Amino acid sequence: MDRPALAAFLVQHRADLRPEDVGLPAGARRRTAGLRREEVALLAAMSVDYYTRLEQKRGPQPSPPLLAALARALRLTDDERDYLFRVAGHPAPDRSTPQGHVAPGLLRVLDRLTDTPALIITSLGETIVQNEPARALFGDTDHLRDPERSAIHRWFADPASGRRAYPARDHAHQGRLQVAQLRAAYGREATRARAAEMARDLAARSPEFAQLWERQEVGHRFEDHKTVVHPQIGEIDVDCQALFTEDESQVLLVLTAPPRSEAASRLALLAVLGSEDPLTAEPGVRRDTGS
After folding, report:
1. Among residues 111, 150, 146, which one has the least CA distance to residue 131?
2. What is the mean pLDDT of the chain?
3. Contact between residue 249 and residue 243 where contact means Cβ atoms under 8 Å apart
4. What is the pLDDT of residue 155?
5. What pLDDT sits at residue 115?
6. pLDDT at 96
7. What is the DSSP string of 99-142?
8. How does residue 17 score in pLDDT terms, banded at 50, 70 and 90?
9. pLDDT tens digits for 72-112?
10. Residue 114: which domain range?
């Protein structure tokens, strides 16, 4: 671990960012233009004291998950992320796996989306990061570990939770889309091994998956229009826009509704509900919003 190199790198990249670059309010009476240490710590979900010690060249060696969180907080490119890992004494992560890293371009767009559900997922359906409306709609996925991190895996291995965000009438169609997305990931060399492992696992668990996998359908286009379900708010008709990275390894999904529509009003209710996990919310109960 090269503590001086790590400290200098963190200090410079913190100074290069502005609060508005990472979705934070600028605030008043800032002595410096860059991010404060406590803001980086907040974004990386770590203690301010620990982050401060890293910048002061006296902290213990950070773990790979902590470095991945710092890379995301500082909006690092893949090359910058690899350098961060190496000066911290770890090998650079395998770029064929998500490792919690988000394409900076997608993350900059996500930072500006605060009033409508938006999330960034991998080609294997793994949610890397989501904003608060998306967390309120789909539930918090931060605690999930492989292979449950993948929505494709949850759809077939745990239908009770994996399919709850979609009406039953759409389950057959959505299942085909999930398998087609996994088949597309299997067709790319960078994700073939992980996609094959997931396919083998799901084929052993789910006859439905095995049958759909044999159809040889391939696709990663997300529907322009869909219906999602929140247990308290009910059905919400949304338009889905997808923005892919150049290598199609990650995609930003944004769910919107026409202004002043019933669906837009229901999306606005997500802000009232906050990040309460919809998987644990009581179905059919709608909070009093005072309106």
Report:
1. 111
2. 85
3. no
4. 95
5. 85
6. 59
7. TT---HHHHHHHHT--SS-EEEEETT-BEEEE-HHHHHHH---T
8. confident
9. 889 888 889 899 999 999 998 876 555 557 888 888 889 88
10. 104-273
Q: Give yes or no: residues 133 and 64 share one domain.
A: no
| Closest alpha carbon to 10 in 63, 65, 81 | 81
pLDDT at residue 100, rounded to an integer: 57
| pTM for this entry | 0.68
Domain match, 48 and 108 both: no
DSSP strand pairing (234-244 vs 250-256): antiparallel
Identify the residue whose tokens are 């969180």: 69
One-letter amino acid at 92 equals A
Of all helices (H) and strands (E), which one includes residue 201?
Answer: helix 192-205
How is 170-198 classified by DSSP, letter by letter? Answer: GHHHHHHHHHHHHHHHHTSGGGHHHHHHH
Q: For residues 56 and 52, give the distance between their C-alpha atoms in angstroms, rounded to a whole number.
A: 6
In a domain, residue 171? The reply is yes
Spatial neighbors of 146 by CB under 8 A, at least 6 apart, are none
Query: CA dihedral defined by 198, 202, 205, 207, rounded to 10 degrees?
Result: -160
Question: How far apart are the C-alpha atoms of 209 and 122, rounded to whole Å?
Answer: 20
The reply to whether 109 and 240 lie within a common domain is yes
The pLDDT assigned to 206 comes to 96
Provide the number of structural domains found in the chain: 2
- Alpha-carbon separation of residue 125 from 36, 129, 258 (angstroms): 33, 12, 26
Query: Beta partners for 130?
Result: 119
Are residues 117 and 250 located together in one domain of the fold? yes
Cβ-contact 57, 1 below 8 angstroms: no
Q: Which helix (H) or strand (E) holds 205?
A: helix 192-205
Residue 116 has pLDDT above 80, yes or no: yes
Q: Are 102 and 93 in contact (CB under 8 A)?
A: no
Helix (H, G, I), strand (E, B) or coil at 234: strand
| 153 plus 69 within the same structural domain | no
Does any domain span residue 128? Answer: yes
CATH at 242: 3.30.450.180
